[in-house]
Amino acid sequence: MNFSSARQYFYQEIQQSDEDIDLAKAALYIAQEEYPNLDPEEYLNALDTMAWELQERLPDSRYPLRMVQTINQYLYDDLGFSGNQLDYYDPRNSLLNDVIERRLGIPITLALVYLEVARRIDFPMVGVGMPGHFLIRPDIPDIEIFVDAFNSGEIIFAQDCEERLSQLYQQSVTLQPEFLAVVSHRQFLARMLTNLKFIYIKQQELEKTLAAIERILLLFPGLSLELRDRGLIYYKLGNYTQAVDDLQSYLEKVPDAEDADVIRQLLAKLRNNG
Fold this sequence. Notes:
By secondary structure, the protein is mainly alpha-helical. The chain contains twelve helices and six strands. It has helices at residues 5-13, 23-34, 40-55, 64-78, 96-102, 107-120, 158-169, 185-202, 206-219, 224-237, 240-253, 260-273; strands at 82-83, 104-105, 125-128, 135-138, 146-148, 154-156. It has a two-stranded parallel ribbon with strand order 1-2. A hairpin with a 6-residue loop joins β3 and β4. α3 packs across α6 and α11 packs antiparallel against α12. The mean pLDDT is 94.
C-alpha cells in the first residue's frame, strides 16, 4: 500500500496490543492526513501541560466524584472546553489538534481530551460507547457514574442514560447492558473515523470519505459494510476495478444482505462496461 507518512504512523500505532495503543497519538495521526504539517508532539505536550497544571489543583482525598469535579472545573471553567452545539458537524470537531486549539468538540473528541488528561494524573477512566452519545467513566470497580464530556463533564447515572436514549430516539428505550459497554482503543478510533466518514459523505468529499473508510478497515479488516461503502466510493471516483473487488467481497460475506440485489445490479453494470 502506498500510504502517506501519517497513514504509516497510524498503521504502526495500531499494530500494538489494544491497551498499548496511544489514543492521542493515533488521533493526531488521523488529523495529520488533514494537516500534513501538523506536529503531534506539540499537541501531546499541550496535554502534558494540562495534566501538570491540573496536578496542582487535585484534592487531598482522591475520591472519584471529587476528582471528576476538579477535572471539570479545570477543563470547562478554567480552559473553556465546550461541546460545539452550533456547528456539530464541522469536521474540525473530530480532529484532536483542532479540538485542543479551539476548545470545541463533539462527545468523543472531548472525551478523548478528558481521558488523556485523566490518564496523565493517574486517574484511570474508560470510554463508554452509548449509542448516539459517547460517555466516559472512572475505571473503578463498583463506581457506576458516567461523565458527559460534551456537556461540561456532567455526572450522570444509568437511569439518566436511559432517559437520554429515549430523547435521542424519540421513543421509550430500555437500557441494555451493551449500551454502556466499555469500548476498546480500536473501537474508540473507529468511532472517531466513522464520524469523519459521515461528515465527509455529507459534504461530498469523496477522497476524504475514502481515507476514513480505509483507516477503519486498517483497524477492523473485512468489515462488510465498510467494504461495501469503499466499493461505492471507488465507483463514484471511477475506480471500477477496485469497486468490483470490494463489492464482490461484500456479497461473498453477506449474500443475503438487504441491498444484495442492488449491489449485484451495479456489479453487472460495471462488468458489462468493463
